[in-house]
Amino acid sequence: MSYVNVGIIGLGVGEHHIAGYRKHPRCGTITVYDIDAERLNQVVRRHPGIIAVADEEEIFKNPSISVVSIASYDDCHFAQVTKALERDKHVFVEKPLCVREDEAVHIRSLLTHRSHLRLSSNLILRRCPRFRRLREMIRQGQLGTLFSIDADYLYGRLTKLTHGWRGQRGNYSVILGGGIHMVDLLLWLTGDTVKEVLGRGNRIAARDTAFGENDFTSHLLVCATGLIARISANFGCVHPHHHNLAVYGTGGTFLNRADAGLLFRSRDQKEPELLALPYPGYEKGDLIPDFLDAIIADTQPEVTAEDIFAALSVCFAMEKAVRSGQPVQVTYL
Question: What are phi and psi of 57, to 5 degrees?
């Protein structure tokens, strides 16, 4: 049996990638790098058997490493993804894939000439058992025809903007950094296509801090079927981290609460049915074994490159709508 050797860059969320790869029986040697030498040493101590390197280039240049996992700062993703693909390596990357539209176009071009490579991203809400069951119900028509979805990414940790790397790197986008999860959830649940977006944003929660970008944005998204979605990225809220989701169909309504999903199937229904499947119910590396399966079997992973570019296309339109104050048509990459 051949084994797949992996390199991981960035050991914040990237430390969770280690567990994801080690769940797979074909995972071979894991090599790791982080810009923080002390963090790198701590992770190596916590995970015996992995190899640390002092420079990320050692991962890109190592011909025995065929998969690169990228969990660095958002604005570093483009250069690292590009290096990995140019060196003929598969890529699993934390969201967002990149932070500018021209960067996404370039990555798309690289993949066009490397169809044997797999690219996936950690759009992890797809692994939530409650949302997976909801998707089945929608596909089976149990909620009727969908006409409205409300989705709020409630981050609830303003200090991550004001005192963490997000505020230090410049031009951090709460849409790409958080709202993209809700965009992907919308596309994945419904199979619909977003045609037009409107949006507004503010930085009221962060106004007395050095963070200079919007900490809150809210958007209306008009879909091909006529469905209208409202999506917000709310980093400044006084609330635990949570994914508010309300799905309205002609035959039923789903509401996501922390302890259970609530289902209404009749206008006369006094009490909701409880969808008591776990939420969030996943580990941050849970998409990785499927990614390795796709590489080994030469199939597509659960989160495909097409899925990534679709979500990014919508997010870039959302950013343009906030900047312009005007409706923006979605141009798909």
Answer: -60, -25
Residue 187 CA neighbour count, 13 Å, CB half: 22
3-state secondary structure at position 159? helix
Peptide bond into 96 cis (omega under 30): yes
From the list 312, 317, 284, the residue with the least C-alpha distance to 92 is 284
Q: Is the pLDDT of residue 301 over 90?
A: yes
Confidence of residue 1 (pLDDT cuts 50, 70, 90): low
pLDDT digits (tens, 9 = 90+) for 102-148: 999 999 999 999 999 999 999 999 999 999 999 999 999 999 999 99
Supply φ then ψ for residue 284, to 5 degrees.
-70, -10
Mean pLDDT of all residues in 270-292: 96
> Which letter does DSSP use for residue 326 in this model?
S
CB-based burial label for 111 (10 Å; 0-12, 13-18, 19+): middle
Are 83 and 75 in contact by the 8 Å Cβ rule? The answer is no
Mean pLDDT of 85-89: 98
Cβ partners under 8 Å of residue 266, min gap 6: none
DSSP secondary structure of 214-238:
-SEEEEEEEETTS-EEEEEEESS-S
Query: Sign of the C-alpha dihedral, residues 236, 239, 243, 244?
Result: negative
- Report the C-alpha dihedral over residues 128, 306, 72, 3, rounded to 10 degrees: 80
